[in-house]
């Protein structure tokens, strides 16, 4: 054989090796386990479209940032893991995506559906574009603690996935934080729906959607971010989200038709902002529940909370925003005193209780909130109390100023510290939420200066003379609350179809649509320096009202014949809502 021929043969062998290593389709569990065993950085393992039963994967591999190890479906949504299936990931830079978990049987509830640990923790690992659908144990197992996703390690991500029909004790996504090491996890663009409680709402703990931390390590910081998630028809316990660590952020989430509250149970220095809560008067529903120190709570919209329990009594832990008393010498799993917390520029609409200050879940909770700022909140048509002071705040820095209510009563003195009451005109309404209107007493009424208050709940800029409440009049933001029409479009399983997650996030940042809300004849769309391509506009019923290709990075669209209402604009793989008035 000549040297040239030998070289060609070797080239072919190398090419075949690379193909078999980097891009292989497997159709049996044995082949899958073999492919995982042989995987190296850059390997992509593709699962053949079919139903897989009792798949039990234990992955211990190291990828890199530029060459992760990927396990994916041949066709997203056409690979089904059933029976007693689970995935354990250990190592670094592993991506698991596109799989549906359904039809469970003979589950071992001690083993999570997906755990970011095998023989060691997983760091820089991603679970994306999956669906876990009613993957529950038997009735006899419903009080067993069965977690769907157990986070460990650092810098991990759960995104663009749907978690539907959880029943039984155990978080959907849980980070127990067994150590005090910072996590830097990101949980975003997920859909959490149709959880049902064991017994009545709040009969048992550990029925939340997301829990970050545990009481034992709660005084250490996690730096986890939970954003752009949609919670729908969700009922488990008082904590829809349970924060039990420090320096976490919760923003741009929508809670719709739910029971419970976003609860800062333990930990300090968290931020809760730009979230929408639509409780629909469900019993035992709240907005944000506060314990601990140094939290910032701003730009949240909370509507229709109902503090009644199923038995008709009133819960001390609910309300639009509930600030708890603390317990002297509190143990880590009890109630730390609220200190140095700012509750600023929130909008509370049609709740029974708007703001509840100094509540007592237990009679031993006798420490009043200290150095509490409650400022520039809009409280609209609350039926029981706009502001309830069960225990008055203490500390020289405590102040309540610049709050505005429309009708109803409150436990503060009207016309003191710019706290005012009006009888009408504070807010208007559309099909989605109540918003600030021309002539409102909230316009330019903000008091004080807050470095964190740079935009409003919709993402529009705050002016120097800023408005009271969560929204700035005509600021042009487009971060509207999620609805059912967003599932598989902007949140949840099926969202990430062709682009990488980094590409989608960049497009979301670059895509600009203005003016919002639009009251004129022209809608402007821009995509930085990228070509727009196909632009689609649909109404909330999913009907396509415009589809046009633009070979430019900017476009003007004639909307003068559009009816008033909310529409979805889709450019490439990114969708945003707009309101036309």
TrEMBL record:
Its EC number is 4.2.2.3. Residues 513-580 form the Secretion system C-terminal sorting domain. Keywords: Lyase, Signal. This is Poly(Beta-D-mannuronate) lyase. CDD domains: PL-6. InterPro entries: PbH1, Pectin_lyas_fold, Pectin_lyase_fold/virulence, PL-6, Secre_tail. Coiled coil: none annotated. One of its GO terms (molecular function) is poly(beta-D-mannuronate) lyase activity.
């Amino acid at each position: 054989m000549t040297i040239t021929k030998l070289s060609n043969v070797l080239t072919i062998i190398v090419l075949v090796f690379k193909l078999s290593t980097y891009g292989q389709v497997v159709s049996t569990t044995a082949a899958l386990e073999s492919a995982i065993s042989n995987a190296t950085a850059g390997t992509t393992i593709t699962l053949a479209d079919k139903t897989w039963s009792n798949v039990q994967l234990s992955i211990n591999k190291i990828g890199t940032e530029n060459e992760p190890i990927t396990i994916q479906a041949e066709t997203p949504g056409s690979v089904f893991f059933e029976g007693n299936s689970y995935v354990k990931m250990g190592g670094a830079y592993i991506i698991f995506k596109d799989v549906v978990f359904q039809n469970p049987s003979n589950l071992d509830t001690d083993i999570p559906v997906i755990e970011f640990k095998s023989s060691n923790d997983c760091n820089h690992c991603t679970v994306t574009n999956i669906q876990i659908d009613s993957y529950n144990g038997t009735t006899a197992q419903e009080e067993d603690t069965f977690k769907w996703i157990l986070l460990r390690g650092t810098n991990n991500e759960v995104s663009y996935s749907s978690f539907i029909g959880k029943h039984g004790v155990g978080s959907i996504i849980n980070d127990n934080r067994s150590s005090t090491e910072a996590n830097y996890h990101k949980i975003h663009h997920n859909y959490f729906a149709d959880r049902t409680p064991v017994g009545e709402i709040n009969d048992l703990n550990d029925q939340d959607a997301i829990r970050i931390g545990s009481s034992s390590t709660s005084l250490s910081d996690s730096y986890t971010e939970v954003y752009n998630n949609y919670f729908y028809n969700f009922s488990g316990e008082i904590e829809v989200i349970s924060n039990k660590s420090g320096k976490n952020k919760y923003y741009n989430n929508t809670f719709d038709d739910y029971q419970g509250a976003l609860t800062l149970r333990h930990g300090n220095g968290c931020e809760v902002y730009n979230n929408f809560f639509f409780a629909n008067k469900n019993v035992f529903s709240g907005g944000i529940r506060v314990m601990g120190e140094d939290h910032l709570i701003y730009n949240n919209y909370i509507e229709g909370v109902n503090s009644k329990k199923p038995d008709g009594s009133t819960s001390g832990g609910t309300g639009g925003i509930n600030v708890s008393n603390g317990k002297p010498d509190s143990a880590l799993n009890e109630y730390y005193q609220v200190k140095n917390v700012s509750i600023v520029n929130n909008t509370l609409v049609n709740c029974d209780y708007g703001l509840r200050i100094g509540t007592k879940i237990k009679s031993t909770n006798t420490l009043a909130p200290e150095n509490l700022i409650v400022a520039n909140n809009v409280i609209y048509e609350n039926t029981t109390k706009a502001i309830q002071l069960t225990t008055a705040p203490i500390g020289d820095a405590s102040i309540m100023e610049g709050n505005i209510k429309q009708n109803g009563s409150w436990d503060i003195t009207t016309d003191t510290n710019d706290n005012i009451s009006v009888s009408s005109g504070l807010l208007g309404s559309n099909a989605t939420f109540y918003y600030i209107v021309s002539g409102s007493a909230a316009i330019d009424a903000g008091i004080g200066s807050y470095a964190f208050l740079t935009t409003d709940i919709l993402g529009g800029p705050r002016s120097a003379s800023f408005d009271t409440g969560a929204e700035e009049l005509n600021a042009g933001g487009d971060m509207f609350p999620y609805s059912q029409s967003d599932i598989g479009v902007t949140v949840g399983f099926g969202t990430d179809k062709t682009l990488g997650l980094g590409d989608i996030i960049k497009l979301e940042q670059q895509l600009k649509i203005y003016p919002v809300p639009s009251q004129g004849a022209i809608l402007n769309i821009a995509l930085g320096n990228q070509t727009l391509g196909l632009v689609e506009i649909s109404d909330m019923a999913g009907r396509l009202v415009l589809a046009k290709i633009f070979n430019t990075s900017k476009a003007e669209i004639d909307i003068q014949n559009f009816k008033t209402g909310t529409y979805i604009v889709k450019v490439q793989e990114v969708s945003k809502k707009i309101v036309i008035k």
